């Protein structure tokens, strides 16, 4: 069995890093350099040192056991590439919405996207070294999330931290399937 999962969120939140931190194969990245042409188009507020951007997707794979393989697809962050999200979402069973507390508003489009489609998701708060550490309930309140939506603090650079977010997502997906089966 294989599961397709999305890693989404705003520009510069750590999606490419998260996919790369856990992939057992060299991750596929469609990174391109930020150029003068993107000046005035891409808002670099809070990510001024960012020099590249995902223009299509990131891809990684994790073999949980011989019967279960996860395929991770990272979405592009800028709104000019959001047309890719519809294609990437086809066949996905759930998503991680990465949030950066320095720019929390950048995750709202991803939250709206998955809520409108009824796709299960968890919120991973990527704890950047220079960011204030808010608690999960503070983030939940700021994002106006349902009480049953998991919110986890994580470090997208750390394999174990990323794995915990993905485990929580799979548990969320399975819980939703059990609930749907019980009401069918």
Q: In words, what does this structure look like?
A:
- The model has no long low-confidence stretch (mean pLDDT 85).
- With 184 residues, this protein is of the alpha/beta class.
- 35% of the residues are buried.
- Helix 3 (108-117) links the parallel strand 5 (94-99) and strand 6 (121-126).
- The protein is 31% helix and 28% strand.
- Strands 2-3-4-1-5-6-7 form a 7-stranded mixed beta sheet, with helices on both faces.
- The chain is globular.
- It has 5 helices and 7 strands.
Topology:
Blueprint: E1 2-9, H1 15-22, E2 28-33, E3 52-65, E4 68-74, H2 83-89, E5 94-99, H3 108-117, E6 121-126, H4 136-143, E7 151-154, H5 159-182
Parallel strand pairs: 1-4, 1-5, 5-6, 6-7
Antiparallel strand pairs: 2-3, 3-4
Helix pairs in contact: 1-5
Features:
alpha/beta; seven-stranded mixed beta sheet; globular
Give a brief outline of the structure.
The protein has 184 residues and is of the alpha/beta class. The protein is built from 5 helices and 7 strands; from the N terminus they run βαβββαβαβαβα.
The percent of residues in helical segments reads: 25-40%
Count of individual beta strands: 7
Percent strand equals 25-35%
Report the span from N to C terminus. 23 Å
H and E string: EHEEEHEHEHEH
Residue stretches low in confidence (pLDDT < 50, at least 5 long) are none
Strand order of the largest sheet: 2-3-4-1-5-6-7
Question: Structural class of the helix and strand makeup?
Answer: alpha/beta
Mean pLDDT value: 85
Main sheet specs: 7 strands, mixed
The shape is globular
Radius of gyration: 16 Å
Q: Count the DSSP helices.
A: 5
């Amino acid at each position: 069995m294989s599961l397709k999962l999305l890693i989404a969120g705003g520009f510069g939140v750590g999606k490419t890093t998260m996919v790369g931190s856990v992939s057992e194969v060299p991750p596929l990245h469609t990174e391109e350099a930020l150029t003068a042409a993107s000046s005035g188009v891409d808002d670099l507020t809070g990510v001024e040192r960012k020099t590249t951007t995902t223009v299509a997707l990131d891809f990684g794979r994790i073999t949980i056991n011989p019967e279960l393989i996860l395929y991770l697809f990272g979405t592009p962050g800028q709104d000019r590439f959001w047309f890719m999200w519809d294609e990437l979402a086809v066949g996905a069973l759930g998503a991680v919405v990465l949030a950066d507390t320095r720019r929390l508003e950048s995750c709202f489009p991803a939250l709206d996207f998955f809520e409108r489609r009824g796709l299960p998701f968890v919120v991973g708060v990527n704890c950047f070294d220079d960011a204030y550490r808010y608690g999960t309930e503070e983030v939940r309140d700021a994002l106006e999330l349902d009480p049953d939506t998991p919110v986890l603090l994580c470090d997208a650079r750390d394999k174990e931290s990323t794995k915990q977010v993905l485990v929580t997502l799979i548990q969320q997906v399975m819980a939703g399937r059990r609930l749907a089966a019980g009401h069918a």
